[in-house]
## 1
Amino acid sequence: MKVVNALWEVRNSGLTTCEIVFEKGDSFDEYLALNIEKTFQYSVVKIPYDNLKLLHNLEDFGYKYIETQFNVCVATSEIDRIDKKWERVLEDTGYKLLRDDQDFDVIISNIRDGMFKSDRVSLDEKLGKETSALRYINWIMDLRTDINAEIYYLTKRGEEVGFFIIREAVEKSIHSVIAGIFNQFQGKGLSVALIYYYLKLAAERNAKNAFTSFSSNNIGMLNTFTKTVSFKTVSIFYVLRKLIDEKL
């Protein structure tokens, strides 16, 4: 069991927050022994898909289901498959690296306008859209100073239509951290271009694999992955949350 004191979440929600990732064999009794409720106001837990007993124990203890998280791996060789099948969608698209503070204005504006509608925090009636937007903005500002992270605009005919962030990891792999299409350009198949370009950048770095995750709440991205590339599901987690301080 991995327990993280998510100190960064206080600036987003105003709540002391912990994130708990359960591993195979972890039990509800081990969770109770942590005494989480004495320290934190808000708790997020991730449970392996094959431990329904633990999920039900936590539901009986007041946790609410908010999403299923899929963590997947895509071989960079899949880029050839996208190039041939989706040539029309990729036409006139490109990407550009963000370098200056002012370059972030378009991203921040679109996040505030609610581009991440399927985000679990946005859908949570206890937190909502404003908390979700602030969470993404602060996350991106942190990544801006991460030497292993790179932030890119996705472009179509020179216009910014979305963005994506990649992060280099060990063993010749790239992680897609955050990605999205701006509101006015959604529904036009441009999510395919997001996948294409982060695989392209991974291949240019001689990475064999690219990793990312997506939520069961985001049916659009799930559909895009299944019709665009072959991928391996590395892990699946049920995600639940509990607002411990009921006065809030």
## 2
Amino acid sequence: MPKGGLEPPRACAHWLLKPARLPVPPLRPGGNGELWPRYNPKSTLGLTAYTKVPILALQAVDKLSIARNPRARHDYHLLETWEAGLVLTGTEVKSLRDGKASLVEAYAHLRNGEVWLEGMSIAPYLAGSYNNPPPARSRKLLLHKGEIRKLIGGTTQKGLTLVPLELYFKDGIAKVAIALARAKRTHDKREELKRRDAEREMARVFRGKRT
């Protein structure tokens, strides 16, 4: 034992590790923009620097609606729905990203074992010039063979038809929701309007009680 007391502790080898080499778990995003780890090589300690990033920039948009069929649920009983891809040109995709499409006059049907969408209007892309196809041309829908067989069996039944519901981007890919549907009778439409009026009235009364 050295004179004057105990020997001072010696530095251990792991003290020499740089903090930047230690694993730093990422922080989960919260409400108003969060701190996310960003390595800063210019830091004197080599530590991980945290940068505030807006929350909207961190969250990927899974679904972005482009156009809806406003009469679908009013005029039809929807029995079953499917999600289909679309065969589009490059200029049509650019117009869809600008939200320039309409499903008001659109309908779907089967032809030669394939599903086609008719009457959907996509406005010409301004910079597309002669590359723009006709706005309301026929467009092929992409479905699995099993889904197409099911649609063929459904549409052979009397009174059933295919109705487009919504056009949207899903993970950056254009999709359309279609439904096997049966047209409503006038009595059914009146009952539907009465039900919606009653629901709106109940919601109005409930809001009045809360205030």
